[in-house]
């Protein structure tokens, strides 16, 4: 197996005066597809921010964080290796940017193409390639603010991928999407997973978990309380315990649904 993309050992993270991650140990290899499940406030988003060095762990002798084999990163450089799609839809000034320019901003981690940023012909070619990959070529000249929520999410995934090395972190990606857009998102994730993109998905919406995702992390109160194969962890008993409610689970064509 290839060297890990991510290694977290005995990681504790505080936000404000509260410790929100407790003794997290996690190893992820390139090409893995993982879903992180847990109730609101369990620390899922903080875990993603720790992976992207937006949150730093408490300094303790046993703590270790290695990303792509390195313990120290320039954040601008790291953002070019990690494609992150947040739960929020784009805001200003991204809304007045065209689809193609929005994808190009991924090279600079900027909210728009500011005049001081130099876009090369190689960047333009890569942006066109990614727009085709995410089935968004029809959105090249359309302003982001005029797009549907599903179209915006597609462009933001393109933006996340344009400069990355095939690693995609998705934080509640189906938020604000209607049923049709959710289905399109699932199809896009399956396409990317099939092409070898590492996918780490944060969700509490089980239908987001595409069939290609075979490893589940369960989080509760800032701790990883389960880490293993989907077949072992996606059960009525374990999901009911995680979310603190009775669960009726159904699986169809590789997708899971609860009621």
TrEMBL record:
Keyword Cell inner membrane assigned: no
Keyword entries, A-Z: ATP-binding, Nucleotide-binding, Transport
Domain of life: Bacteria
UniProt xrefs under InterPro entries: AAA+_ATPase (IPR003593), ABC_transporter-like_ATP-bd (IPR003439), ABC_transporter-like_CS (IPR017871), Metal_Ion_Import_ABC (IPR050153), P-loop_NTPase (IPR027417)
Residues annotated as domain ABC transporter: 6-246
GO molecular function: ATP binding; ATP hydrolysis activity
Signal sequence, start to end: none
SMART domains given in the database record: AAA
Pfam families: ABC_tran
Similarity field: Belongs to the ABC transporter superfamily.
Name the record gives this protein: Iron complex transport system ATP-binding protein
Species assigned in the record: Granulicella pectinivorans
